[in-house]
Amino acid sequence: MLIMLDDGNYICILGSCMQLRSKFSVRKGTWYHACVTWQLSTRTHKYYVNGQLVGSQQTTAGRTLPTGRTLTLGNWGGNYGGHEFGGEMVYLNFYAKELSQSEVQEMVNNGMCKDLLSDRHKEVRLVKWEDMVRKTRSGRVTEVDMLETCDSSFQVFFSVLTDSESLLNKTRQELETKKEAEKSLTRELEHVSDQLNSTLMQLNTRSLQLNATSLQLNTTLSLLTNVSTELNRTSDE
b/e for 195-218, b at 16 or more Cβ within 10 A? Predict the structure, then answer.
């Protein structure tokens, strides 16, 4: 189980909890980058705020992260309700590796808006924010317009996405037009092929007729030759 309160004071992993109120403080209306890591081999979980390590603690020996459980955002899961998250949350991701402090600091330096541009850890990003926001919601959940929060770099990125989407739609339409043209050409070719096959059958039939006529002519010629021979023989006698 992973539990973290909205003021960062109380965080638990697998039954190992840290009280961090004396380590840092939070201010309303201010964004903070929070990162929790855990390593099975060392049994150590660490908590970073804005890239700085503010606490670490070992978990109980033999405890591992279970699978097949439910991930709950904004409240405690199961029978632990009543602890609503009081704040805004964006770009929450789960990675299948322990991020180092330098990697966490790199995320902080990139900024909350630039995280959308690239993620060099995407190969091990197992639980993705863009997938979570599509899940069923309950309670008092309000979406935040990041276009009003982020700086111009995000605006440029969003503009690039919009232009790319328009280009993709145009390309998709062009492909559909080409597909229709290919289908029409295929139908024409099939029609021509049918006509050629019909003509070939007619030619084969005509060829058989000509062969039969030739055979009849040869037979007639043979009979005429025999008659001529008999006539010549009678004349000699």
Answer: eeeeeeeeeeeeeeeeeeeeeeee
